[in-house]
């Protein structure tokens, strides 16, 4: 492909969508859905799906796969396969991004089954993923032309446009590929040395005796530094403030007030006087944190309600604008496929024994998946995938579905199982629809074929579903779902919502206290979710994320006098951080697999336990990592000056 200049100014608006000429014009024939693009895209879907599953269950956050996927796609096509094809690169990043989407949908819901003490089968995870993913892809097809063409210049689709810019820049050369790989290998090696060889502690902590023996600690993980750099200092500080309230405020308060009790205080079965800081966190603080997270979800949903309603109305009014055309860039999946797919999901949700939600549950799956998929595909055009209120929409779905199932006789474990599976299908559909909406925008700007991308995305969902499921089960088998290592914050919240509606047996006082914290944040103008996650999660995680935010601040200050250079170095840091997160997470999965096979590679515990088990050693290793990230991020290429 001959090299072209960057995107035209019209890519961001200024003209009607039908008059926009894509980067690759519709009459220019180029390979797109090839064996190479599908294979690489599926590998990326597996990679980012596994990494985000690990990260989401541990921290409650996921990272965007579109931009690093676009960087890696162009790098592999140009550097390894010696072919410069932007349409193939776009298909690769679109397929690869589905791994992140299904991971985000699954970690919200299905681990709740394990938290309840029930058995979660791999087949259940795969089927829920395939059904929800199918609805998420299909339901945005009739709206594709309206959302991307008719609303051109009105809906921003920030990640979609960023991915388009990356693809165009990558097709004309760039160093982003090396940056992502540096982070990938750096994060993997660091994780192998700490979590695998155990050369230093991953969770050093110190007991604060004057404050009721509470704990302060830091998870010295490359992934957390990467997350902190990506989200920035403001979000990191909000999370850390929530952690301080929990670990330096509430835990000592509960210990101080409850140490004189002679009987256990519900929901714990132990005397507070005999409980450690970790025990108090597990028995009490997590319910407070869950209440705050739930309040954040509801407030986010309420604030988004006008946008949701207008998005749905606008999207429905534009459904007639969809449909295929004669040009390559106008071709979508046929409408008959959409209707047939919805009917197929309804039937399978009803009759398959492993996901039996009954006819009413199956009908609610279709209704809620359609409504919220439409909302998701449009709302990400306004606020982006990262700010898509998936949790709020999922909570609303679960509340309604659980209540209806209970009314028609689905009660007890059977009712809870049916509700969370139905909610899981809808949640996956919501997450996939948001990611697919961004990909459709990128495809429109670049000049790809929508039908090829739609088919490719579902192939990516099929390929990554089993691996994401295996990661969930592997992490549970090694660490235990809901444990200190794998707290699974969103799934714990969803389990409480469903169980609370179905049985009414929850420490509602603690949940309400958490909700009050959420309302307090809203009244004070503080982002609720960041504070609530800090309140819910161990302080070790928030402290590790804060380090990444501090590095980002130092980098910003170094280049604050040169806006152009600041932008380049910030993008470089985000790419490096994305690689760190992926490398850490993937190596963490490998280490968990070794543990599952009873293969001990922790040589540090055998050769020098006094040194490797010392918190100071861990602090030094973490400091070296931080210095390396800062040096790498602030190193300027001479051609950027």
Can you walk through the features of this model?
It is a single chain. This protein starts with 34 loop residues before the first helix and ends in a 7-residue tail after the last helix. A two-stranded antiparallel sheet has the order 1-2. The longest helix has 41 residues, at 277-317. The protein has helices at 35-59, 66-79, 86-106, 111-115, 122-138, 144-150, 158-171, 176-196, 222-258, 277-317, 335-351, 358-383, 390-407, 412-446, 450-479, 489-503, 508-524, 528-536, 539-558, 563-596, 604-607, 609-612, 615-634, and strands at 205-208, 214-217. With 641 residues, the chain is an all-alpha fold. Helix content is 70%, strand content 1%. It contains 23 helices and 2 strands. Helix 1 (35-59) crosses helix 20, helix 2 (66-79) packs parallel to helix 7 (158-171) and helix 9 (222-258) crosses helix 18 (528-536).
């Amino acid at each position: 492909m001959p090299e072209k200049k960057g995107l035209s100014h019209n890519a961001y608006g200024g003209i009607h969508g039908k008059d926009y000429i894509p980067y690759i014009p519709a009459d220019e024939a180029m390979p797109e859905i090839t064996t190479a693009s599908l294979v690489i895209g599926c590998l990326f879907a597996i990679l980012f799906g596994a990494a985000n599953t690990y990260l989401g269950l541990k921290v409650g956050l996921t990272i965007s796969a579109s931009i690093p996927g676009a960087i890696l796609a162009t790098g592999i096509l140009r550097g390894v396969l010696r072919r410069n094809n932007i349409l193939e690169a776009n298909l690769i990043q679109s397929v690869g991004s589905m791994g992140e989407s299904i991971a985000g949908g699954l970690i919200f819901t299905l681990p709740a089954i394990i938290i309840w003490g029930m058995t979660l089968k791999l087949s259940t995870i795969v089927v829920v993923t395939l059904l929800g993913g199918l609805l998420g892809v299909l339901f945005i097809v009739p709206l594709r032309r309206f959302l991307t063409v008719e609303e051109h210049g009105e809906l921003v689709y920030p990640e979609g446009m960023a991915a388009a810019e990356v693809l165009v820049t990558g097709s004309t050369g760039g160093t982003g590929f090396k940056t992502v790989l540096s982070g990938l290998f750096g994060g993997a090696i660091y994780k192998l040395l700490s979590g695998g060889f155990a050369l230093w502690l991953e969770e050093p902590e110190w007991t604060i005796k004057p404050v009721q023996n509470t704990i302060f600690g830091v998870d010295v993980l490359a992934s957390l530094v990467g997350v902190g750099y990506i989200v920035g200092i403001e979000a990191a500080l909000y999370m850390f403030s929530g952690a301080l309230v929990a670990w330096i405020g509430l835990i000592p308060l509960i210990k101080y007030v409850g140490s004189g009790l002679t009987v256990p205080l519900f929901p714990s079965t132990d005397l507070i006087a005999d409980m450690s800081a970790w025990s108090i966190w597990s028995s009490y603080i997590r319910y407070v944190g869950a209440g705050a997270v739930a309040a954040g979800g509801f407030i986010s949903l309420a604030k988004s309600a006008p946008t949701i309603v207008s998005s749905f109305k606008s999207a429905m009014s534009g459904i007639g604008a969809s449909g295929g055309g004669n040009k390559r860039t106008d071709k979508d999946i046929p409408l008959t496929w959409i209707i047939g797919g919805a009917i197929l999901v309804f039937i399978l949700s009803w009759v398959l024994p492993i996901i039996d939600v009954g006819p009413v549950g199956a009908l609610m799956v279709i209704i809620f998946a359609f409504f919220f998929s439409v909302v998701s595909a449009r709302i990400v055009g306004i606020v982006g995938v990262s700010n898509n209120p998936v949790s709020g929409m999922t909570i609303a779905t679960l509340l309604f579905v659980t209540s209806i199932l209970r009314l028609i006789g689905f009660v007890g474990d059977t009712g809870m199982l049916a509700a969370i599976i139905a909610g899981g299908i809808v949640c996956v559909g919501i997450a996939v629809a948001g990611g697919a909406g961004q990909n459709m925008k990128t495809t429109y700007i670049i000049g790809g074929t929508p039908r090829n991308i739609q088919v490719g995305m579902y192939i990516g969902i099929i390929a990554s579903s089993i691996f994401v499921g295996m990661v969930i089960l592997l992490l549970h088998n090694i660490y235990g779902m809901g444990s200190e290592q794998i707290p699974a914050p969103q799934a714990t919240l969803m389990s409480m919502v469903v169980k609370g509606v179905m049985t009414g047996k929850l420490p509602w006082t603690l949940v309400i206290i958490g909700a009050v914290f959420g309302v307090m944040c809203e009244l004070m103008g503080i982002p609720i979710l960041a504070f609530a996650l800090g309140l819910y999660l161990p302080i070790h995680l928030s402290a590790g994320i804060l380090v990444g935010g501090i590095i980002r601040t130092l980098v910003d200050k170094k280049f604050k006098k040169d806006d152009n250079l600041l932008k380049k170095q910030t993008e470089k840091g985000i790419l490096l951080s994305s690689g760190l997160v992926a490398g850490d997470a993937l190596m963490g999965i490998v280490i968990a697999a070794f543990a599952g096979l009873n293969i001990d590679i922790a040589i540090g515990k055998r050769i020098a336990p006094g040194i490797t088990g010392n918190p100071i050693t861990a602090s030094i290793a973490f400091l070296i990592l931080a210095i390396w990230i800062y040096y790498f991020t602030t190193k300027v290429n001479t051609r950027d000056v």
